[in-house]
Amino acid sequence: MRIDTAAGSILCDPWVNPAYFASWFPFPDNSLLDWEALGQVDYLYVSHLHRDHFDAKHLRDFVSKDATVLLPEFPTSEMEDELRELGFTKFLKAPNEQVVELPGGLKIMIQALTSPTDGPIGDSSLWVEYDGVRLLNQNDARPTDLTVFAELGHVHAHLLQFSGAIWYPMVYELPQSAKTAFGKQKRDRQFDRTWRYIDDLKADHVFPIAGPPCFLDDELWQFNDIFGDEGNIFPDQSVFLSEYAKVGGTNGIVLLPGSVAEVTTSGATTTHPQPVEEFFANKKAHLEEMRERKRPIIEAEKASWRHPEVDVLDGMKRRIEPLLDESIYLAKGVGGPVRFDLVGYDGESVESIVVDFPGKEVRPYADEKVRYRFRTERALIEHLLHIEEVDWVNSLFLSCRFSAARIGQYNEFVYAFFKCLSEERLQYAEGWYDEHERAVDAEDITLNGWVVQRRCPHLKADLSRFGIVDGDQLTCQLHGWKFDLPSGRCLTSVGHKVRAHRVDAETPAPAGEALS
């Protein structure tokens, strides 16, 4: 998105090239726009380092290096470091949740989210005001509430995510009926979260952005939402409008590449390069045309992944074992061995490697029982080791080019660890968990006959707003996590017990240790 005002222009998250091992492409396709012109801007804002937002090649080739980067206040310097490597030299480091006035009367505020589960160590939202018109570009970010933005004045344009951006449940080795059921639950939760954010801000106009990627590789084609699957987690903008209408939404505006919306305090006027309804009615044809046009790009990327000179076991040992030695919270949170089944170039032979978190070592699989197992091509791991990738979530897992199986609940610490394969990231994540798991949340609220702690044990969402109690079960709608209230046990992941007791009970049930 590009924001143009009389006081300057801001280019936000320009993503054009495929991301995550050439699995994700922007849809609708924006690669044919005049990026030579669009990249001549005064300011650049990149919300976070996920590669469908931070497109290094496009930033290097098409965005003016005279642009001033509006930099979120993240806990590590990675974003600034990477942007400097691309040639950017001007940075405005925005203090978190503080309004900054730029020349000409343009005002901005950036809210940075900094938990280890917020993107690749951080996500953010951008608030902009010029001449009394206010805009919030929330994109992928999931703040616990939008109060900090609402307090700055009525917002006229609210841009936010509504679709899935994850690998669950598609990659799990489950019966199709289970995948459909889990996918429908997730799809519904995504929309519920979006409606809550929209209701919180009450902006004049809602723009569904950060929408679904499309999958153009034949191996991933089935992930596109064109088959009538109610469990597909990637609904598009046209589906958003129909679902939004069901809850009374009438102020949604869909943008195509090349669309221009002029927003004022009294309304919004939008022009499109082609009729929006007609475009989405022909979605499958557009995808098929894109697939053929992008096929050479996918094949070229695939040809670059193999590095037979890389000893995968030795490389994983050198990269991961020093971090296992330093890890306390993440290693304890994972709590057992994680197995990688690596399929060879022939498509049949398999090498199995175990990351043994309790034993603090990487070793060949020894026929033991594991609770987490990933199966992927050996070439992908070779490539990650070859380029010294520090974030396997922001590469392998988001690519969906793997399958997974697990025994028991989802374990967020598995994915937190594999996005922290550098000492800087690991130490930050360990410190974050140490600080937050030790903190005692003493404030309680009452929900449907239960007294519960006000903040969700997961990521501290305000349960007075996001909590729903049905019988003896609590659901936090921000991320869909569920808790059994009589025991306090989390039903979604290991750890994270909630403190709760019935209103008429004399004493509350103990919350217990978060990593037990």
From TrEMBL:
Coiled-coil residues are none
Q: Which residues form the signal peptide?
A: none
The protein's matches in SUPFAM superfamilies, at most eight in alphabetical order, are given as:
ISP domain, Metallo-hydrolase/oxidoreductase
Give one GO term, molecular function aspect. 2 iron, 2 sulfur cluster binding
Transmembrane region positions? none
Q: What keyword terms does UniProt attach to this protein?
A: 2Fe-2S, Iron, Iron-sulfur, Metal-binding
- Per the UniProt entry, what species is this protein from, by scientific name? Micromonospora mirobrigensis
- Residue ranges annotated for the Rieske domain, each copy included: 451-505
| Source organism superkingdom | Bacteria
A Pfam family that the UniProt record links to this protein: SCP2_Rv3818
Q: What is this protein called?
A: UDP-MurNAc hydroxylase
Provide the organism lineage as a comma list. Answer: Bacteria, Bacillati, Actinomycetota, Actinomycetes, Micromonosporales
Q: Which Gene3D superfamilies match?
A: Ribonuclease Z/Hydroxyacylglutathione hydrolase-like (3.60.15.10), Rieske [2Fe-2S] iron-sulphur domain (2.102.10.10)
